[in-house]
Amino acid sequence: MKISSTYKKVAVLAASALAALAFTSAPTAAHAAPACDGKVPVTSCIGATSDGAPYSMMVPANFNGTVYLYSHGYRYNVDIPSAIPLIGGYKITNTPQPGPNATIIGYLLSKGYAVMGSGFARQGWNGDSGVATDVELINTFKTQFTKTTHVIAWGESLGGFITQGLAEKLGTQLSAAAPLCMASSTVEAELKMAGDFLWGVKTFFDPSIKAGNYSAGAAGYAEAMTDLGKVFTVMGKLQAGIGKELVTGAPSWPDTTPAAVKSMLGTIPSRSALLLIGLMAGLPAQSAHFDGTTGPGSPNSSSYTGFALLGSPALAILENGTNAAALAILATLDVEQQAGGATFDNTKTDYAAQVASEASTYSAALSGSTATNGMLAYLAAAPRATANPAAVTKMRSLLQWTGKISVPEVTMVGVSDPITPAGDSTYLANQYAAQYAAQIKANIKNHLPRGSSNLISIYGLTPTHYTTFDATGSPVTSTPAANGTNHCNFTTAQYKTVADLLAYASTNGKHLSGGPLLTAVRKMGGSTVDLKFQAALPKYYSQD
Amino acid sequence: MFVQRRTKGGIFAAAVVAAAALVASALPAHAETGVTSSTIKLGVTIPLTGAAAPGYNKIPAAMNAYFSYVNANGGVNGRQIKLVVKDDAYSPAQTLSVTNDLILKDKVFALVGTLGTANNEATTRLVNSQGVPRLFVNTGFSGFADMKKYPTTFPLFPSYATEAKVMGKYLADNFAGHKVALIYQDDDFGMDALKGFSTAGTNFVAKIPYAALSQAQEGVVGTWVQNIIKSGADTVVMFGVTSATGALALGLYKANLIGKVQLILGSVGSDGTTLKGLVGPALTAALAGSIAASFLPSPADATDEYITQFKAINAQYNAGATFDNNVLVGMNTAMLTVQALRAAGTSPTRASLIKAIETKGSTWASAAFSPILYSPTSHVGYTGYWFGKLGLDGNAVSVDGPGKYTLYTTDSGSAPVVKASATRPAMPAKGLPKN
User: Is residue B408 part of a domain?
Assistant: First the structure.
């Protein structure tokens, strides 16, 4: 690909500007107008909204009137002690983020688009305040840069949720929007997957995990940090145990497994128990490094088939679950503290029904129907989590998106995203389908053109084979995550294509369609834009 | 920057589309997916590699042989059939991935003969949402006849529940007083069988479940044999795939039980050629006398008109392939597919294909002796079995004598098992359907 010198210059500037922003003290008081450095070819501005959210704006000298407003994803709203594996040492940050990354920001600036984004006033689950911040930020930008004609909103994960909420609030005040790897329509839906999985880990592998219903204040924070340590520890034990099981065939459960579980289910491999709770929670059975299709050695060897069918799905749940566990615990703590009590309730959850179709598909990895039924019977009789009704009411009062779409929107998500399942985007598409059908009906009745769809849904697909093995036959987990896996795992080409689709829609008032759309999606690679493609809906929506 | 070209007659086209469909589409309108003026593209997923591949890996070549024969004779309404074959290694995750390719990239018109219960389960959401016809699936799970859950899926094989009921009747008639043990694959396949045996009132001295493919794991088969010995069983019903039958045979051989227990094999696990490949000719010969249930005629039956015709096609278009149950399954599936495509009309659509099968499928020629029960309210395929004894070469010969087939028919529910004479439509002239 040819990169112009101008593009390179702007991209480098964008990257250095971003780096500078990270070290800039965030204003603590609201500014009436942003402070701009007046530099060329890109002017950078910083400021804070009335709620104290720091923001940044970057405007090229050849600004064409269109600005991309980016909403960043979930950031923990507590510091994480350094002793915690994987995420230890995290400090709360509200550094503004005007785009997905420096490369994409540079790409947009080089084309004459402005970019902006805030760090939000509070971290954690912040849908309501996030939308309010974005609304104010748009107005501030328009006031500062009067040449502005179009505002495109986009964001990822929780930022995708905020983007959709913003699009529903502002309607045609935006010209296009892209909720990418978007969170579920409600925080309750988002946290159900986390709650089900954590409860399963607690029930099967370590009953000392609290898994929610944390105390108020500092005590609750300590409990959550303790949970983080315990969950990561038990995941490590499961990883070791599964490794042994795949070699010896003998079950190897963590030493923290309750005696009753060992007594009733001890002849079943722990990998099957882990897979079961992952599937019932709705976690994908393919992960960054485990495809469920590849084993070591020759494809015709029993070790190849054994690993692919029996081991890989459980290891995928382990990888996905470990990545999701931190967010699950910390988001639960956050929402409980916002709502004033426990919000997860599985007293009426029928896990057998919830896992029915997956249990059939993954029967071999689950060690057969008898073992599966035994595990489900244990879960059915195990103590359940009870929510605080007042807290649930409070939680349900938080922002929700409904799927209403008024301007061209693009969604994009990997089919095996373990944090914000692809089914969330499918749910949005299904909600919009009803709206669009009614619109067509009305247009036909009024002798108007039916109008084109306002939604393009892009799904990142996983390759058929991507698990690799070292010389000893052990799976390699240090390679980059496969396409379609991990959370908001997009390539530069995919981001750029979405940005271009938004620009087209913003300019033309409708989406690119037909052959050019298919060509654009094909060129970015690893994705489908097939209209009928349906990802599995999250369990909250009770699809299955 | 993208460029959107305007198509001629766009406004007119928009009006037509508006009247035809309410579903949103930013994608181009087109003729039916997978159908051109000269071709029809079909897809199949099947294990070509891995532990489950032996035997099954012969089916796509057999299907292609029959399609090549039809193509050489003018195709279907002037169109050549192209079959895209994808290896799923019997892994549901791989089945889903390669089915994504078949539907979203290869743009097949329909899936045909996709193999495996869990594998077909894994792709159901995709198949349903796309409205892709899934014809003559290679599994006997009775659930696939549920038209609400699987509206585009057409099972062909008799259900495992049907097979178990029929087997239960056969056991009651011929093995009264024997101590019978059951080994079964512990998933929907085996659960279906348990349901059928329960309906038949069959009592087992031992029920031995095993997780799919666990027969390849250390010690698993030894446990089966120990349980057989412990139960005192003199008869063993094996309800699993042929590789499990092979593993059992080796286990019985090691325990010096060959010839001391009577084996009764389900249709899925009794292909002689596959068995020979797994355990060798000597042990296969030692299994002679084992009883097997089948719904297609014996591939060794030289008097059967379907067998002779398919054998001739196999010799010409599938060079080197031994004609066995798997080749027969492949050719029979392909011949039914051709009839379905013909019945779908000169401008076939997915909807017209499904309608054709529902309204006419019960009349089509096929090698099985059982009628096909397709109708607008039923996606049930075959419903009956005959019993044979394995010969020294592993091929079954009817217990009533060569070429004499007594059919046992029933449903997947509570209907009684009925003995019937085997009847079926004649093989079309030269094996080329003219429906």
Answer: yes
CB A316 within 8 A of CB A365: no
Question: CB distance B2–A500 less than 8 Å?
Answer: yes
Residue B315 placed within a domain: yes
Cβ contact, residue pair A504, B18, below 8 Å: no
What ipTM was estimated for this complex?
Answer: 0.86
Residue type, B293: A
d(CA A284, CA A424): 13
Tens-place pLDDT, residues B177-199 = 999 999 999 999 999 999 999 99
Residue-wise pLDDT for B119-167, tens only, equals 999 999 999 999 999 999 999 999 999 999 999 999 999 999 999 999 9
Question: Do residue B269 and residue B310 come from a single domain?
Answer: no
- On whether both B344 and B360 belong to a single domain, the answer is yes
Residue where the block lists tokens 């003995």: B419
* Residue B268 resides in a domain: yes
As a whole number of angstroms, the distance between CA B89 and CA B96 comes to 11
| Residue B433 belongs to a domain | no
| B211 vs A367, A449, A453: nearest CB | A367
Tally of residues, chain A: 544
Residues of B in contact with A245 (CB under 8 A): none
Sign of the four-CA dihedral B426, B428, B431, B434: negative
| CB-closest option in B26, B121, B185 to A456 | B26
Q: Please list, in sequence order, all residues whose beta carbon lies within 8 angstroms of the beta carbon of residue A443, skipping any fewer than 6 positions away.
A: A449, A450, A451, B18
Statement to judge: residues B341 and B408 lie in one domain: no
d(CA A148, CA A66): 6
Give pTM, 2 decimals: 0.90
Same domain, B137 and B182: no
- What's the number of domains chain B is made of? 2
CATH of the domain at B329: 3.40.50.2300
**Could you identify the residue written with the tokens 């909204």?**
A49
Which residue from B27, B93, B125 is facing A534, i.e. has the nearest CB?
B125
